[in-house]
Amino acid sequence: MSLTPLSALGSLDPASNEPTRWESPLIFAPALIPQEDLVVVVNPASGVTHLTRDEVVNIFMGRQRRLPSGLIALPVEPVADPELRARFYESLVKVSLVQVRSYWARLFFSGQAQPPWQAQTPEEVLQVVLANKGAIGFVPRKALNSKVHPVLVLRGEDHP
Amino acid sequence: MRKNRKWLRGPLQGLALLLGLAPPLLAQDPQPRVSLSGFGTLGVGISDSHLVGFMREGTQAPNGILDHPNASVDSRLGLQLQGHLADGLDATVQGVSKYRYDGTFKPQLTLAFLNWNPAGSLELRAGRIAIEQVLGAASLDVGYSYLWVRPSVEFFGLRTLPTLDGGDLSYSFALPSGTNLKATAFAGSIVAKAPVQGGAPYDFTGSPASGALLLVQHGPWEVRLSHSRTRLKNEFGSPIADLRNFLAGASVILQDPRPGQAAEALLVKDARVHFSTAELSYMEGPLEFRGTFCRVDADRLLVPPAKIGYASLAYHLGAFVPYGLFSGGISKPSATPDAGAAPLLPVPGANTVPAGLQILVDHAHLDQRTYSAGVRWDWSTFADLKFQVDHVRAHNSLTAWNVLEPGWKGKTTVFTATLDFVFGRAKR
Q1: Which residues of A touch B77 (CB under 8 A)?
Q2: I need a labelling partner for B335 at 20 to 30 A (CA). Which of A32, B85, B396, B407 fits?
Q3: Cβ separation B120–A109 shorter than 8 A
Q4: What is the pLDDT of residues B55-84, one digit of tens each?
Q5: Taking CB atoms and an 8 Å limit, are B426 and A76 in contact across chains?
């Protein structure tokens, strides 16, 4: 697992033709990158500029209820593509979706935490993040737009 | 008439708010303000013994799994209603139907609390709560949430604090190293009844309990340390109370202090019981490990001090998870009280008093180990199938058993298959 410093992200619009520092040819050479980067995003008005991997783990695994800025966190995950979710959790906490489901059943039915909200597609995740100050989601890099704020990148080569 | 309805306004408005009929509190919040979820298990077990019934937990069934299929002991159904009342304020209500101490499936209210998160690190719960002193202790009825067919009988079934009416306060924070810490203090009174073979159930209800828990999470590692205590509020009912009264009377009649001392030895009211637990767990990649130890300090004949623990190791192979579980417990042996000359009194049943005292000592004594192996198969995103074999060895210990006939040699093997499922919000 390696993290991309946010200062090195450059332009966040994937539709832009301008080469960016995080879109280097090396990173996106298919032969070298088995999976696409996943980007954790928040609402620009959330007061959060970056998050560490541990902070993202704490929010998506129900250990912390609020963002560092104090807003109630609303984690959102895309569920239409199970492989995407599996890559996220395997990259973030190195456990399978089977373990994640069991984990959330324990927290939810003991009343300790609410599981992440389930959106269908990455586009829907972005809509939820845009519409809620405290929302935090993850999307594949190609789905990213410039309206949301990236706070952490899970590099594709680290995904299983 | 109209005036008489005014009193309804407040409760109805509150109900409307809870049911989502009031204007949205968070206009763009995609989460429903009320959600209904549930869980359940269909389980069938069979053992190789017709002498003793294998019990899942001490607050359950007056009988147990014998040498014919039993679908009661490991089956249950739960519903949970979750309400998002305001920013940082949630309500949870949960009811569970399972085989109870009275042999029925009458639903029980297992959770009913308000959860308030006023600041980033602080959290307060008030109402009927379950404390997760060790991993999974607050979700023992949710088979889908753990690997095994059932949690360790010696550990969770017999010697843990059940549901509390009270509250807890948690403070969590992260260290720069990435280590997450959560400290919890809780207090309340116990809500539980346990069956007594051939008699009235023992009522824990109203017994005050309090404690503290420290949770340390670092990467795949998790450590839990907790200490809790309770003071039992009630005495045992019949037939233990009858035996106690007989012994007390015999002591007076015979002018012999020994029956009186035996009667006093059967008292449990105001017994103070302390639980000190330590747990280490690891979950990363295919490996999942958990080791837990608990020391129970107490000083009564029927509530003896004990040491209990379990260790579990699992290896995830995609949807299949083979696992092994070893658990055991041992309590400090107690001498059978001396009834003196009480058995010689010309009273019907007086001659059975020594045997009765011995049975009570054996039922209170824990000296048992269970070796379990099984496999969990997550064939769906909301359900699993499990198969488990338990081999139990007990030595002069009947605390986990329903004895039908004497002569049990202390060894039994139990085979169980379960189907666990979840639905609603919990379906991931």
Answers
A1: none
A2: B407
A3: no
A4: 888 777 677 899 999 999 999 999 999 998
A5: no
